[in-house]
Amino acid sequence: MVAAYFSVEFDGKVVGAFRECTGLGSQSQVVEYRATDKNGKPVLIREPGTMKYNDIVLKRGITNDMDMWSWRRQVEEGDLTGARRSGTITLHNQKGEPIARWTFRNAWPSNLNGPTYDAKSNEVAVEELTITHEGYTREQ
């Protein structure tokens, strides 16, 4: 599958198309303890501990849309309850067809970076949003 872009929805409304998305993953803390087997031989037991979901990082060319900035402002002003949202990230192919989808819950913007831009280059000015959340599932 060839990926072209990611779209992000909150409450069924598309809020943007992004050229890069990273962090769709999770990890478990590894808990180790020593024990003995039935013959008295020492063994090391390793089990999964606390589950942690990675932050999702989205990058896109800067637009005149202020949704991300308004969302981040809620957190800056201390309204974390109002800022928490659930949503969906959809990966689209070059024809615009959805080819993969992840749904995440209780997300809030923990970081927002404006563009770094060099006027002497032809590069697109990119803004970056980091979303912290409480879990996700792959739906498609």
From TrEMBL:
Pfam families: Phage_T4_gp19. It comes from Deinococcus ficus. It comes from the Bacteria. GO terms for molecular function: structural molecule activity. The lineage of its organism: Bacteria, Thermotogati, Deinococcota, Deinococci, Deinococcales. This is Phage tail protein. InterPro entries: CHP02241 (IPR011747), Phage_T4_Gp19 (IPR010667). Signal peptide: none annotated.
